Amino acid sequence: MSLDTPRTEAHRERLTAHEALQRLEHERASRLTQLRAIGQAGPDAEEQVTSTHKDTLRRVLTEIEAAFARVQDGSYGTCRNCTRPIPVERLEILPYTPFCVPCQRDTV
Predict the structure, then answer these.
(1) CB–CB of 47/55 below 8 Å?
(2) I need a surface site. Which of 10, 26, 38, 69 has the fewest CB within 10 A?
């Protein structure tokens, strides 16, 4: 099934709050581990690549924290742009995304 195809009634429409929190915790832990590894890479690591990677990880961590807030306020899993449900498959792959695939394409 395509991530931008509407879901049928036979499939779950949303992740539960517990499932969403578990996925977000995993994503956050993974990114924090990556940041620590970069910090331990030492002076031999190529500085520009390391800096860019750190910036990307920090941006994703910010997006993850925003997703935690959406779980708390009940808006998690709803596209910030079109207000339609974000397909569960997309949230399983990218649990911190605030957009459905079509709207994400429009924001790029």
Answers:
(1) no
(2) 10
Per the CB < 8 A criterion, the answer to whether 27 and 59 are in contact is no
22 is in which domain, residue-wise? Answer: 17-107
Q: Is residue 7 part of a domain?
A: no
**Has residue 70 been placed in a domain?**
yes
Tell me the backbone φ, ψ of residue 51, rounded to 5 degrees: -65, -45
User: What is the band of 19 on the pLDDT scale with cuts at 50, 70, 90?
Assistant: very high
**Residues 76-86: pLDDT tens digits?**
999 999 999 99
d(CA 65, CA 93): 17
Q: Is residue 87 part of a domain?
A: yes
Please provide the DSSP assignment of 73-93 as one string: HT-TTB-TTT-PBPPHHHHHH
Structural domains counted in the chain: 1
Token readout for 106 is 């429009």
**Global pTM value:** 0.72
Amino acid at 96: Y
13 is written with which tokens?
């429409």
